[in-house]
Design goal:
The chain is α+β, with helices and mostly antiparallel strands. Helix content is 15%, strand content 36%. A hairpin with a 5-residue loop joins β4 and β5.
Length: 169
């Protein structure tokens, strides 16, 4: 349960940065994501239109990068939590019965990534705190900042995100 998370045990984790690679983003990945979120912007689908507008290839929808939870092949099903989360990819240890919810994202686009670029990420745990809720008991808030870099280590995106850990009622 969220109330079982010991904040003091994570004080030293604040400021810890993990670096990982998303890898090369293909045109197909960009198009599939745009289709999945029902965004028919031709810059995401049509290379000719993107080139007319000065890009090398189709643009990767900016929220595609922040939507990637696990850039690896993923853990075997028997190692995932009930909610499908790979516990090894989460910044703090979660009690097994706790539930995880998205608490929002704030994206700052520094420049658009185009298909074919190699993307890496520096993700920093910025805060862990708790608040009481009448409906869900104690909620634990986990805040992270993810800095995304494209080709030539060019800073392309910043994502400040909050995740909320709650208790099953």
């Amino acid at each position: 349960m969220s109330s079982e998370i010991d904040l003091a045990a994570h004080e030293d984790d604040i400021g810890r940065t993990e670096t990982y690679d998303i890898g090369r983003v293909t045109p197909l990945m960009a198009r599939r994501y745009a289709r999945a979120v029902e965004d028919d912007n031709p810059l995401f689908h049509d290379e000719a239109v993107a080139r007319e507008r000065g890009y090398d290839n189709v643009i990767v929808p900016p929220n595609f990068l922040s939507a990637i939870i696990d850039p690896t092949e993923g853990a075997p099903a028997d190692q995932l939590r009930e909610d499908g989360l790979n516990p090894q990819r989460f910044p703090i240890e979660l009690p097994p019965e706790a539930i995880l919810m998205g608490g929002g994202q704030d994206l700052s686009i520094h420049r658009y990534v185009t298909a074919g670029e190699y993307v890496s990420v520096e993700e920093t745990l910025t805060d862990v705190y708790q608040r009481d809720s009448e409906q869900m008991g104690t909620l634990t808030f986990i805040e992270q900042t993810a800095e995304y870099y494209g080709d030539d280590d060019d800073h392309v995106l910043t994502c400040d995100k909050t995740m909320i850990v709650g208790d099953r009622q």
